[in-house]
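Bumping with the actual sequence this time:
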Amino acid sequence: MAKYREADGRYVYKTTESYKGVTWECKGTSYKGAAQAKAAWQRNKEKRIALIDGTVDKKEGRICLERAMREWYDLYLRNKVIRGRPRPQTTIDTDMTTMSQIVDGLGNMQVCDIDSDVLQRYFNSLAEKGTGASVIRKQWVLINQFFKKNRPYNNPMLMCVKPQTKSKHTLCDDDCETSTKTAYTDQEMAALTNVLLEHPAGRRVEQAAERGKLLTVIMWEFLRLGEAVELRVRDVDLTAGIIRIRRQYDERHKAVVIPKDNSKRDLPISGKCRSVIEAACAGKQPDELLFCGNESNGHEGRILRGALRDTLTAACEQAQITPHHVHDLRHDGISYMVRRGVKPTSVQRWAGHKSLTVTLDIYYRDTGEDDPQDRSLMEAV
């Protein structure tokens, strides 16, 4: 303990303190007198002890879930930069909503009291209530990220099994009916291709025809939308029969970025759309877009998501098949190749997936029909 007076007239009260394995120099000063200096020392000591207690409590999980998740999110995710782009505000808003749903569902309990049994019961209850698959997936990912950071050696999510749910989607904007997502059959894909190439719907026939061709390529080459709209003539090698995926277009930020998960790749040109690609390349310079939209749309002539959605919805109605979203066409193309017996590892590589699990468990969809060859094999057993 030390008591003294500085040259400038300040009274000082200083000690060396130790609490829960932390040692620090605690000091209080005041111009008013020694008693006031000691009072300042006492306040500083209490603040430091509270800080140490808070750090220990946080480390051991003795902190409420809502506070812990928000502090974690603000520290690690809110300002995270991915591929040179900050986290969009819409994503942050979605994450805030998801965290509120998690806290409401689990209750604002302490983090240390949350184990795998608690989490498993929670997710099972969501599935039993008919909660949408996308909502469950968002909560699953966010909780897993939280515990992966806070309990890297004892993540309770590793012991949980995500409940099976039926993915549903709206058939069209004016119809609230929903249906289970299944892949298009060979006949449905052929019917849709015919409509997209021969009878595309739209007020401006030329633009509708261009969108129909792009949608056909998305389905048969199972491309991501951003990859497809950014395709340029130089990316196509008709002699080698391949398409080189090196970039994709981020419509929201109006920026050209690397493909998702850095999935640069070469994929074979499907026989179902080779003639479409050859025609799209004819007479164009290497840097020109393969498929062009309205040049005055603010996106340098790239075809936009909304326009593709409208064309696809009209084409599905004309082909008398269940409407799919634009991204569903990627699922349809992947499912078609798997049904045809293409090695799943090849499909994974061409699709640009990080793992075979993503290709088979997430993107492959059954058509709901028995395959005649599979049935004959079953009967022959």
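The tokens above came from a reply further down the thread. The chain has three domains: 2-60, 65-159, 183-375.
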